[in-house]
Amino acid sequence: MIDREQVLHVARLARLQLTDDEVERMAGELSAILAHVERIGELDLEGVEPTSHVVEVSNALRPDEPRPSLPREVALANAPDTDGEGFLVPSPQA
Amino acid sequence: MIELTAKQLADAIGRGDVSAAEAFDAYRERAAADDLNAYLWVAEERPEAGAGPLNGVPLAVKDLFCTEGVPSQSGSRILEGYRPPYTATVVRRLAEAGAPLLGKTNQDEFAMGSSNENSGFGPVRNPWDRERVPGGSSGGSAAAVAAGSAPWALGTDTGGSIRQPAALCGIVGLKPTYGTVSRYGMIAFASSLDQAGPLTRDVTDAALLYAHMVGRDPCDSTSLEHPEAIALPSSERLDGLRIGVPRDALAHEGVEPGVLAAFEATLARAEELGAAVVDIALPHADHALSAYYVIAPAEASSNLARFDGVRYGLRRDADEGLLAMYTHTRHDGFGPEVKRRILIGTYALSSGYYDAYYGRAQQVRTRIAEDFRAAFRECDLVATPTSPTVAFKLGERVDDPLAMYLGDLFTIPFSLAGLPAISIPCGLSEGLPVGFQLGGPAFSENRILDAAYALEQAIGFTPLEVGG
Amino acid sequence: MSTAYEPVIGLEIHVQLKTRTKMFCGCELSFGDPPNVHTCPVCLGLPGALPAVNARAIHYGLMIGLALGSELAPRSVFHRKNYFYPDLPKGYQISQYDLPLCRGGRLGDVRIHRVHLEEDAAKLVHVGESGRIHGSDASIVDFNRGGTPLAEIVTEPDIRSAEQARDWLQLLRVTLRQLGVSDVNMEEGSLRCDANISIRPAGSDELGTKTELKNMNSFRFIEQGIKAEIERQEALLRAGEPVVQETLHFDPRTGRITSLRSKEEAHDYRYFPEPDLVPIDITDEMLEAARAEVPELPAERQERYRTQLGLNEDSAKLLADRVELAEYFESVLAVNGSEPQAVANWVTELAARLDEGDPAASKVEPGALAALVGLLSDKAITVGAARQVLDRLVAEGGDPKAIVEAEGLGAIGGGEELAGLVAEAIAANADAAEKIKAGNMKAIGPIIGHVMKATKGRADGGEVTRLVREQLGL
Ligand SMILES: [Mg+2]
Ligand SMILES: [Zn+2]
After folding, report:
1. What CATH number corresponds to the domain at position C448?
2. CB-hemisphere CA count at 13 Å for A16?
3. How far is C336 from B194, CA to CA, in rounded Å?
4. What kind and span of H or E run contains C167?
5. Which of C320, C279, C276, C282 is nearest to C301 (CA)?
6. Is residue B59 a contact partner of residue B102, using CB atoms and an 8 Å limit?
7. What is the number of domains present in chain A?
8. Contact yes or no for B220 and C50 at CB 8 A
9. What number of other Cβ atoms are within 10 A of residue B193's Cβ?
10. Is the pLDDT of residue C263 over 50?
11. Which of residues 283-312 of B touch C (CB under 8 A)?
12. Which domain holds residue C375?
């Protein structure tokens, strides 16, 4: 179960604005989904290693050799707002 | 020309019967005239392609593959009109091998969905019945190939997103072993599960396209070299092959009788071809869906954090300050299913819940991989229906996310274990295609393709009429 | 009677590694280039881009671990640390969490908790009210720095004073510089330090509530900041008020401590293993390669200078802390190995004349400095004359002996000439002579000064003193 407060808390962590209606709907839908996935709580998983990679690969290291960077105008081309040199954002301190 | 498979078209171009330019123009015209909403972008003219063995056979590519200078939006309004400055490794490799980019295909937003109704650019229609969904998330690619507006297409599969739409559209879809195809340039959904693969009219085309996709890419640390060269299939018998069927898993109430009937008929054909059908157990398959709907949203919640209105894509309300910009941009840019998964994933990773959700789900994943290892001591390949149902009606499941998720019941276990699996059309139920899924151990693509080819010949499935 | 408090301090140091390229992409590192000219799909966090670990960053991380005596993890794993900030393009930082590259270790008198690798954030420049973003102050993001490899070094809370924190950080700095893994420049931000500070009644074993003092960018500010925070906490406790766990900022101009994150909610970083990267398994080859590149470090060198060469503590530390001085010192010793302490003193004299410069790049050949020390020990010149010779060597180079001869700087030994000058000096300073006779030897200064002036410093001070006593009948 997940209540309205928890939905709002998680939405804030995820930087997601939700309307009141959305909070209401999400609380219901997420609760149903969580009730389903919580069935994994029934399993005895004592001592089972978690799998974060299905393939056994390690040390995929890259040599410390420069590769061409993007021209600045290309790097900035998709930006919603720039001053021609950098990405313009509302100040985090404001 | 349109009725030719991709391999037949490549051969025809190779012989000089058709020119690559004629082929491209013919498909370009069909793609531009597409009325299924399968395409989000179609090439204006033939792009340059390498002189490789694919001989200029055009390729439709799922929207989420980055293509330099060409819209790559992953089906999301938050990336509307986004044109990346680079091309995904696998698209580049295929272009170099001679498959030029024909168009970008519609998909569920950020590959989250099983019906293509979650696209920010409208749903795709199933060419078999326009009132029905094509499946998802690679629904545009599947519909385009089934409708003959592309000879073949690229899709991606995280929990079934190639196999399920292939099944619902009556074509072939291969989800390869995790890591054998580079993910570099694929707009991520769930990094530990995402894998690119072919959607094709037949098994031979799937083998041909996959053969040019594989290979380690230094830009993708999780990629690796396929230990075998991928061969075009040719065997017409299945002698000595043991096909395992997880009977317990098939007993699920949601499996339609017509789907089961087509599946059983195909098993019978396999036996006629010399295969032995054996019962196997996948004791944790029952929990695969749960584990998947923790792991995939958790990774997605992090992968989608970069859509913040700073460097690309949608931006809202910057004049109201940073927090408003972040939260309003993401509210307006993401659709409901994406929001749901971001919230579920954030919750599953958050302080105090990690062990109960994400940690446990990763342990279930270990168990499922062990189940398969045990099963592959009893059999060579595992068969299930691809989807428990045939294509359902547009709008039928949009208000019941859980019912929608249950459509991935049979595809997800292979995804969690990183194993290869193919879906081939095996018959009709209520006039709609049914998919037969055949999966195997890691790197067993050659065996899977061989068996699928033999079955394909025996089944003689009649595809949708695409010529003329 | 008021309680005495004992500070408990631990440091977290972020060190930018001096690789050629960034941690996870092939963009070149740069300092001071125009904004956003070193970016690519990976370090801009473009959709679809994936990280790839820089092998040299791992190599440098291992060298740091070896230098600090850490246990090197056979397997280490990168995690994602999730939070939103405009300088963090992916919405998460790739960092190491519960499986860091190095654990434990010690440097000097402070134990190391762990060392892990991560990527640096981009640079945010506050530009104030902008015409573009109406109604809100704006910042500009420059991603050149974003993705620079960082080693984060975390100490145990073993430090007990602001001075100790400063001294230890200086030792860490010279150690890292000697390793060659970083520029360790605090002003340029390649060495950044946060301090965790708490206080407790002296003698107590319990830990008080700690605060985190962020990003102090000079050794002086670190000392001042920690001192100010200790005082602030003491004042709170004495007033019966609690210390609140929070992140603080020290303003060196005002000396004030301010809270940084008062408005912000508690963080929940939602760490999980980075699915785009595979684990790092340290192989024997990687370990050997790192070992081969770890030079003799300041602490070891200081110890060797003291025990094997008999240098005093100050000289040993001064030379060991600056690798270029130590190397020059050893090249002088190679020519004149009989008097290490004298050579050390004269390398110090030389260093003082070169500001921060490397003596090997100066005009003073190691052989020349060795010869100068030889002339001194042979009493062929006085200390004063030697200093004049050194000035000439710094300015023009050359051979000390030739300079002594050309300038007539040779020491005036005993004999008639010096005795005459001493007599003259006593006559000219009758007051001083009386005081000496009365037993106050300290009054000898003006007499020696007179002689030195007359000889342009070529007289031996000891010999002059002997002659004064002799002539005054003492
Ligand atoms: Mg850090
Ligand atoms: Zn870069």
Report:
1. 1.10.10
2. 32
3. 69
4. helix C162-179
5. C320
6. yes
7. 1
8. yes
9. 27
10. no
11. 298-299, 301-302, 304-308, 310-312
12. 298-407
Q: Tens digit of pLDDT for each residue in C17-48?
A: 999 999 999 999 988 899 999 999 999 999 99
Return the pLDDT at C132. 59
Chain A adjacent subunits, 3+ CB pairs under 8 A: B, C
**C191 to each of B17, B464, C175, C181, how far by Cα in Å?**
67, 66, 12, 11
Distance (angstroms) between ligand 2 centre and the Cα of B110 equals 24
Helical (H) or strand (E) element with C427: helix C415-428
Which chain C residues are Cβ-neighbours of B88 within 8 angstroms? 48
Residue B293: pLDDT over 90? yes
> DSSP character for B355?
I
For residues C266 and C152, membership in a common domain is answered with yes
In this structure, are strands B152-157 and B59-62 parallel, antiparallel, or unpaired? parallel
Q: What are phi and psi of B245, to 5 degrees?
A: -125, 120
**pLDDT by residue (tens digit) across A45-87?**
999 999 988 888 899 999 999 999 999 999 999 999 999 999 9
Asked if pLDDT for residue A93 goes beyond 80, the answer is no
Cβ-nearest to A54 among B218, B360, B418: B418
> CA-CA distance, C152 to C116, in Å (whole number)?
5
Asked whether B330 and B308 are in contact (CB, 8 A), the reply is yes
Query: Which contacts (CB < 8 Å, 24+ apart) does range C185-188 have?
Result: C186/C217, C186/C218, C186/C219, C187/C217, C187/C218, C188/C31
- Provide the pLDDT for residue B467: 64
Question: What pLDDT, in 10s, does the model give residues B52-95?
Answer: 999 999 999 999 999 999 999 999 999 999 999 999 999 999 99
Which chain B residue's Cα is nearest to A14? Answer: B346
Which two tokens mark B270?
């396999």
Residue A58 lies in a domain: no
The conformational region for residue B460 under phi > 0 = left, psi -120 to 50 = alpha, else beta, is left
**CATH tag for B6-239 (out of 3.30.750.200, 3.90.1300.10, 1.20.1260.10, 3.90.1570.10):** 3.90.1300.10
End-to-end C-alpha distance for chain A, whole angstroms: 37
Q: Is the predicted pLDDT of residue B225 greater than 90, yes or no?
A: yes
Q: Report the pLDDT averaged over residues B18-30.
A: 97
Band of residue A94 on the pLDDT scale cut at 50, 70, 90: low
CATH 3.90.1300.10: which residues of chain B? 6-239
Same domain assignment for residues C249 and C173: yes
Task: In whole angstroms, give the CA distance from residue B301 to residue B306.
Answer: 10
Tell me the one-letter amino acid at B396.
E
What pLDDT was estimated at residue C1?
A: 46
In this prediction, residues B285-299 reach a mean pLDDT of: 95
Q: Do C307 and C286 reside in the same domain of the chain?
A: no
What mean pLDDT do residues B210-238 have? Answer: 97
* CB within 8 Å: A60 and C53: yes
CATH number at residue A20: 1.10.20.60
Q: Which two tokens stand for residue C414?
A: 């005993």
- Domain span at residue A20 reads 4-41
